[in-house]
Amino acid sequence: MKIKKLLIANRGEIARRIIRTANKLGIKTVAIYSDADENALHVRQADETFYIGQSAPAESYLNIENILKATADSGSDAIHPGYGFLSENAKFAEACVAAGIVFVGPSPYAIELMGDKAKAKRAMIDAGVPCVPGYQGEDQDIETLASEAEKVGYPIMIKAAAGGGGRGMRMINKAKGLEAAIEAARSEAINAFGSGDLILEKAVIRPRHVEVQVFGDSQGNVIYLGERDCSIQRRHQKVIEEAPCPIMTWELRQQMGEAAVAAARAVDYGGAGTVEFLLAEDMSFYFLEMNTRLQVEHPVTELVTGLDLVELQLNVAAGQTVGVTQEDVTLDGHAIEIRLYAEDPANDFLPSTGRVEQWLEPRGKAIRVDKGVETGDAVSSYYDPMIAKVIAYGSGREEARRLLISAMSDSMLVGLQTNRDFLIDALGKEDFVSGRATTAFIADQYGDAGFQSIPDSTDLCLAALAQFKSANLNAQQASLGVNKELLNWSTAELLESVFIYQVSGSEQTVVIRPLEEATYLVRVNDRPAVSIEVKSFDTNTMRVYLHGKYHSLLFLPSPDNRSLTLTTPTKQFFVEDISGLSGVANAAGDGIVRAPMHGQLLEIVVSETDAVIPGQRLAVLEAMKMHHEILAEISGRVSAIPAKAGTQIAMDTIIMEIEPYEA
């Protein structure tokens, strides 16, 4: 059969990823959306769209009845579930089959069996797949679990039998506290998965998390496409993934691959699946679980194999063979993926929601960005806060790592807190650079303190200079006939501009003094001033020479230039000038008239209560023996004139305020 129209029962970046391959294959796509996703990026890119319910997942993306109705109404002959939501829901797969709809995934039987950790482990033991010693029996009373824990030996892992992702999971080092941990894990498992059944496993200390990508078809073919190392995790959630595993040998890859194929064959697996293993320090490996769907981190496998995994999924779902033999599979180069999340690393990685005001995306050689939002879109509190996956490919691991750091360093997202700085820092840690990182990496490197990216004095100097230059640029654009060479000029001695920022609860005063057109003396509090030479500057980028080095920066000022987001290669931070003295551009139409440059205020030609219209002459400023007229931008009445004619004023000093007429 041929799939002609595909409904994607998902959202965000994975929906867009599926749309991309469907378009390549000439398959029409149908996007579904909730109230929160009415204008989402995946909705804008699909051929057709269908509303499926309110924002809460239970009312929309988990609503099987509504999704099947949208499938029927749209005339779709297949459903791709993506990952998450209903992708590993056997009842959903059964409902698709019953409705005569092609489910792009494995059979309901495989989903159900592998979705239950206890049943899956028993099946793997029967199939000869190496498993961690433990208990996966049906007797779930406290006494039985405590007795089995003693037999397995401590430390021990308690896991929810019906799910994953770290929910319903606890590690216990000794018998004391076991009962409380079981009750907590059971309660969490019931809330997350609707089942309180648990399994026990001997804890493998400081392992690697290595998973093998498998593919099966209806003709009984099963192959493996190499492995991925997903050891960098926070609370059992993957953060950085790569392919291949840095310490993998050819012999070990073959052993793990064959074990993964045996796991798939045990459940007559069809489609894309991932068999996850724990790789111990002695290079022994143990079955962890099988994900019966496309993984978030599938792009790293695509880059090193050259295969389109979504295309293979669609081909297999249409009744074709995988089309690739085990001998055809080769791994070339190295790929590393990071997950860019809207979250606050300084605040226990709590999700951050809101509008993406501006996003200068990671870019560069061999960089792939799978994104779910773009500038102007919103990150909702209803769904996973992942913004994008950023993947770098190189001929070797170090090249891929450096390319990824470079791409992330040259990116900026304003409007939300993100884990950008944390990811850059993690990629630079020696344990990661050397390939020694295990699942203990984040705990070892960051402990319980999380990660904070606090601007230092150099960062504050650069932020203030960006605000100062931005105000200059705005003043130049807002003033008629002002030569840019005049913007730092004064008829008296050089004037200083002052910025005051609140950083970690204390005020930091930054003073800027122009020396010549492109050179500035900048100091923070009582520290010695530093000389900064601006090599280039435009509305969002600045390149400077400081401390014997060149620095490339990204920034975004607020409309009134009172605040600014600055991005350096390792930090992104927000500052707000609370001095009330400078760093403020003339906001078009707000009625605040400011000096566009340093100079002598020769004349004020209007008085308080005077009515003015756009283009009307308000004042005259002298700079470098030239007179510059300051003109009204709006219609209104002059409400205040704090400046005085005949005085020397600094750039951005308020000259007058105009109260606009009501529209």
CATH 2nd-level architecture of the largest domain: 2-Layer Sandwich
How far from one another are the termini? 63 Å
- On the 0 to 100 scale, the average pLDDT is 92
Radius of gyration, in angstroms, nearest whole number: 30 Å
Question: What's the CATH H-level superfamily name of the largest domain?
Answer: ATP-grasp fold, B domain
Domain count, please report it.
5
Strand order in the largest sheet: 14-13-10-11-12-15-22-20
**Biggest sheet layout:** 8 strands, antiparallel
Global morphology: elongated
Question: Structural class of the helix and strand makeup?
Answer: alpha+beta
Give the C-level CATH assignment of the largest domain. Answer: Alpha Beta
Number of helices: 16
Q: Give a count of the beta strands, DSSP E runs of length 2 or more.
A: 39
Tell me what you see in this structure.
The longest helix has 22 residues. This protein folds into 5 domains: 100 residues, Rossmann fold; 70 residues, ATP-grasp fold, A domain (Dna Ligase, domain 1), CATH 3.30.1490.20; 239 residues, 2-Layer Sandwich (D-amino Acid Aminotransferase, Chain A, domain 1), CATH 3.30.470.20; 107 residues, Lipocalin (Beta Barrel), CATH 2.40.128; 69 residues, OB fold (Dihydrolipoamide Acetyltransferase, E2P) (Beta Barrel), CATH 2.40.50.100. The N and C termini lie far apart (63 Å). The strands form 9 sheets. Strands 14-13-10-11-12-15-22-20 form an 8-stranded antiparallel β-sheet, sandwiched between helices. Strands 24-25-26-27-28-29-30-31 form an 8-stranded antiparallel β-sheet, with helices on one face. Strands 3-2-1-4-5 form a 5-stranded parallel β-sheet. The chain has 16 helices and 39 strands. The chain is elongated and about 95 Å long. β27 and β28 form a beta hairpin.
